[in-house]
Amino acid sequence: MPMIEFNHVDKYYGEYHALKDINLSFEKGEVAVIIGPSGSGKSTLIRTINGLENITSGQLTVNGYDLADNKTDINKIRKNVGMVFQHFNLYNNKTVLENIMLAPRIVLKRDEQENKDFAMHLLELVGLANKADAYPRQLSGGQKQRIAIARSLAMKPQVLLFDEPTSALDPEMIDDVLAVMKNIAQTTDMTMLVVTHEMGFAREVADRVIFFDQGQVVEDDPTEEFFKQPKEERARQFLSKIIVHK
Questions:
Q1: What is the pTM (predicted TM-score) of this model?
Q2: Is the alpha carbon torsion for 165, 201, 28, 58 positive or negative?
């Protein structure tokens, strides 16, 4: 059974049709990059996976839970689905270490020493163990995003979602964040869905690339195949512009 499965999923905002008949599945450990122009529905798609957006029709299952079923406890899903946003969302009044320890303490009731030890391990993983006692205001944007990734990993999720994690960063900070993401992809069996314009990351790390336009899946190919020769003209146009721009 796939870790995540969309069956004929539609999403409307009033009259606006944001997701159109989405049929996708993602296996355990798979790394998928979702690309496409702004406003094409990419972020909406991944936000449905942890219930930040409700689907209008169809079926969406995550780790065996049906998100369209009113009886499904969304908090059980969120325990296993981490998300890294464009704008960090750290608690400014808490230290870096406290930011990472907070959710496992409240949600999982993790032993305090175990929680601290694991948080420090994650800080080492993202290269920021020396910032444990710092506050978010003392960090650069790239450092904040690496802390946000560590915080998502603190719950030991089975699925990790990234919503344009580098788009708010200065160019020189992007590589450090991408390096952390690559390490996670290459050393864990987490399912990762990444909305991004970072084509180098997609080429190097993704198992597949999904191209979105106007709320629809236009192309869904293995990574090498997609970059060598997209099947659809719309995908070819997008790829030529974004790669030339970079």
A1: 0.93
A2: positive
HSE toward the beta carbon, residue 50, CA cutoff 13 A: 21
Q: Please state, in angstroms and as integers, the Cα–Cα distance from residue 57 to each residue in 24, 60, 135, following that order.
A: 15, 9, 42
3-state secondary structure of 37: coil
- Structural domains of the chain sorted by starting position, each given as residue range(s) with its CATH number in brackets: 4-88+158-244 (3.40.50.300)
Residue 32 confidence (pLDDT): 97
In our burial notation (b when 16+ CB lie closer than 10 A, e otherwise), range 60-94 reads bbbbebebeeeeeeeeebbbbbbbbbbebebeeee
- State residue 241's pLDDT score: 81
Q: How far apart are CA 243 and CA 235, in angstroms?
A: 12
Both tokens of 180, joined, read 């952390």
The pairing of strands 208-213 and 191-195 is unpaired
- What whole-number distance in Å separates Cα of residue 66 and Cα of residue 77? 10
